[in-house]
């Protein structure tokens, strides 16, 4: 109120604020952010290039489509979409720096090399030429007939463009990767040199079994300090999660079994106990009215049916029932209501479209005129099938027309419109007829038929075994009692109370805001939990209670740590580096004991640690020592004088002391030119990801997502 009073008393102040805002608009649109806060439609920037909400949603859509096609979960892909966009922006910037431009001609000239098309043999003719014009025509047809599918194509095209740019950039930059003559000669020398050694190895794992070494937070911090680049991190949260699944009890299981038995052989309440699944005269309506799963009016192969009935169904009579039987958390009774062979049909068609139909672009004939024309063609072809090809020029399906009208072999499972499939299923070889669909009138000629496997139509009466209200109430009671017990307690108390109650506990230590799914959980509440944990109001030690929609499951979350963007908190990466740090501490102790012993030979060192002396032949380029890759040990073998003991060497799997006995040269086949090419190819293959990571590490990347979505709440899309 005091500020409002100042504005009323000083109108020039109000004018100044307005002027400042207007100036921001006029001078630099980006400065709007400074006046009004982040633009909710700009999620970030990469070296100044904006990542818009629309771009993010398009990239996320493409990933979700790919996941769906591969049978993978569609949720939890937000962070992957973001990372791909960041990398795509970096690639685009390099692409343009090299003087290239993503024109329409460039796109169509290069698309054949994209992973999405390069392996598709149908897109290449018999000479190996890519069918660019045919693909363009298909996309134009989609644009005219299916706007939604065309919009999906545009989103997919953007991803393809980024991949084509990456291909071009990597090809250009990797061309500059060469191997010098001196470098190749030195590498060949290292390849051919061998050192015969005796050595003593004090294995870390064995040593730590006998010597207890605890890794403190300070030890972890020291290691992180020595390797700062490795531990750059985005903002994350350390969470304690206890999950209370609302599982059906034995009483709930018995109730479901009793209910389905009543429906199967007793009678429904609606019929006064007279109608049941055995005696019903309308199976589909009975299932629709009484089942927890809908009736499916389709034919299935045996291996597509519930496992319990896959064998018996092949010899069953129509009307025979099976069950009740249990499939996972469902009780089921199945009834065979029909069976038939699933024929394969070879057919061809002529599509007569009309104005306004999806395939009717450029067509002026009316629906009535189209029907009259189709009927006329159908009558002629029916009388003389050989004349079919005369009318292909009238077809509005150019793809099939180019193949003589052929649609190839199809089955009832082929994704054609129902009217078309119905005609194929119910007419014999040689039949010709006219069928109306949403696309127009089809003159169909059935060229051949061959019988397929038997298919079965089954009515399944299903009752889910669900937790009762009493079961859900008991779960809720346990969860609420637990959150009361841990309120204001330490994280150790949270863990111990969970373990004492034998509750399901997990501890995602580095949960990112847009991970989508939480390690050890995986529910539809994961995204909501992450949003809660990243809220600016949260403090370490906060707890919250969540209920999973539709299941009655409960989740109690404890915020154990807040990691802001920067260097990783030592405890958040303990699981990743504790073994490494413990080995280093062990290496220090072992080396100190060796130095203190002032041993003059390997036998004395072996006796000191109760190990045996070993022998090996080592090579610098392939530094394998007794089955372990140990480059430091190979370096020591060639660095120490013949007959002399090396200093203790901190290897990857243990501490070594080496005695070199001899050096030999084993010249391998292949000339310098061939070897140089091999090394160059290897380096070029390793270059791509390393170069892209370097670009990303050195880029100016602004990520506004947390700030924006904290303000917008759930409005993430």
Automatic annotation (TrEMBL):
Coiled coil: none annotated. It comes from the Bacteria. It holds the Pfam family Rotamase. The keyword Chaperone applies. Its main location: membrane. GO terms for molecular function: peptidyl-prolyl cis-trans isomerase activity. The keyword Membrane applies. Residues 342-448, 570-662 form the PpiC domain. It is a single-pass type II membrane protein. Belongs to the PpiD chaperone family. This is Periplasmic chaperone PpiD.
């Amino acid at each position: 109120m005091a500020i409002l009073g100042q504005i009323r008393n000083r109108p020039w102040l109000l004018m100044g604020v307005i002027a400042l805002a207007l100036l921001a608009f006029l001078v630099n649109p980006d400065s709007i952010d400074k006046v009004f806060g982040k633009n909710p439609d700009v999620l970030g920037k990469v070296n100044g290039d904006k990542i818009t909400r629309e771009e993010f949603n398009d990239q996320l859509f493409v990933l979700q489509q790919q996941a769906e096609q591969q049978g993978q979960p569609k949720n939890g892909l937000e962070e992957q979409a973001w990372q791909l966009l960041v990398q795509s922006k970096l690639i685009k910037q390099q692409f343009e720096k090299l003087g290239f431009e993503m024109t329409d001609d460039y796109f169509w000239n290069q698309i054949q090399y994209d992973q999405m098309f390069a392996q598709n043999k149908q897109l290449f003719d018999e000479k190996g030429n890519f069918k660019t014009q045919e693909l363009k025509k298909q996309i134009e047809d989609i644009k005219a007939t299916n706007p939604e599918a065309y919009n999906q194509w545009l989103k997919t095209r953007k991803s393809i463009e980024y991949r084509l740019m990456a291909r071009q950039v990597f090809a250009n930059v990797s061309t500059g990767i060469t191997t010098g003559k001196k470098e190749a000669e030195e590498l060949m020398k290292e390849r051919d040199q061998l050192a015969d050694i005796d050595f003593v190895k004090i294995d870390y794992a064995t040593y730590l079994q006998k010597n207890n070494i605890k890794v403190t937070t300070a030890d972890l911090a020291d290691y992180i300090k020595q390797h700062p680049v490795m531990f750059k991190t985005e903002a994350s949260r350390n969470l304690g999660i206890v999950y209370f699944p609302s599982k059906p009890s034995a009483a709930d299981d018995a109730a479901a079994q009793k209910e389905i038995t009543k429906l199967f052989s007793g009678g429904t309440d609606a019929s006064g106990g007279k109608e049941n699944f055995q005696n019903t005269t309308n199976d589909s309506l009975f299932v629709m009215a009484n089942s927890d799963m809908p009736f499916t009016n389709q034919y299935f192969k045996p291996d597509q049916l519930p496992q319990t009935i896959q064998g018996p169904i092949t010899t069953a009579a129509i009307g025979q029932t099976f069950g009740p039987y249990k499939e996972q958390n469902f009780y089921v009774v199945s009834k065979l209501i029909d069976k038939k062979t699933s024929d394969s049909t070879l057919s061809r068609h002529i599509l007569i479209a009309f104005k306004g139909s999806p395939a009717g672009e450029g067509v002026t004939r009316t629906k009535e005129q189209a029907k009259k024309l189709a009927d006329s063609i159908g009558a002629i072809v029916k009388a003389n099938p050989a004349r079919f090809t005369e009318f292909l020029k009238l077809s509005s399906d150019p793809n099939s027309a180019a193949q003589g009208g052929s649609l190839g072999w199809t089955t009832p499972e082929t994704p054609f419109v129902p009217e078309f499939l119905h005609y194929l299923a119910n007419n014999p070889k040689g039949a010709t007829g006219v069928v109306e669909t949403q696309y127009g009138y089809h003159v169909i000629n059935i060229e051949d038929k061959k019988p397929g496997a038997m298919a079965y139509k089954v009515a399944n009466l299903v009752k889910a075994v669900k937790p009762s209200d009493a079961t859900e109430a008991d779960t809720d009671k346990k969860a609420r009692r637990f959150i009361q017990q841990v309120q204001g307690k330490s994280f150790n108390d949270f863990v111990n109370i969970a373990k004492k109650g034998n509750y399901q506990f997990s501890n995602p230590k580095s949960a990112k805001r847009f991970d989508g799914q939480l390690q050890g959980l995986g529910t539809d509440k994961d995204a909501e939990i992450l949003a809660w944990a990243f809220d600016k109001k949260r403090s370490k030690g906060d707890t919250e209670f969540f209920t999973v929609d539709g299941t009655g499951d409960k989740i109690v979350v404890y915020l154990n740590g807040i990691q802001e963007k920067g260097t990783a908190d030592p405890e958040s990466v303990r699981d990743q580096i504790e073994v490494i740090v413990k080995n280093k501490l062990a290496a220090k102790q072992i080396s100190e004991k060796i130095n203190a012993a002032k041993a003059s030979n390997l036998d004395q060192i072996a006796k000191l640690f109760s190990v045996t002396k070993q022998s090996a032949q080592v090579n610098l380029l392939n530094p394998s020592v007794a089955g372990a890759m140990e480059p430091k040990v190979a370096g020591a073998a060639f660095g120490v004088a013949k007959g002399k003991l090396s200093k203790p060497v901190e290897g990857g799997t243990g501490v070594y002391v080496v005695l070199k006995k001899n050096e030999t040269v084993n010249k391998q086949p292949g000339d310098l030119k061939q070897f140089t090419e091999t090394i160059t190819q290897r380096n070029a293959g390793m270059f791509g990801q390393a170069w892209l990571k370097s670009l990303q590490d050195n880029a100016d990347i602004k990520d506004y997502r947390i700030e924006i979505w904290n303000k917008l709440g759930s409005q993430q899309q």
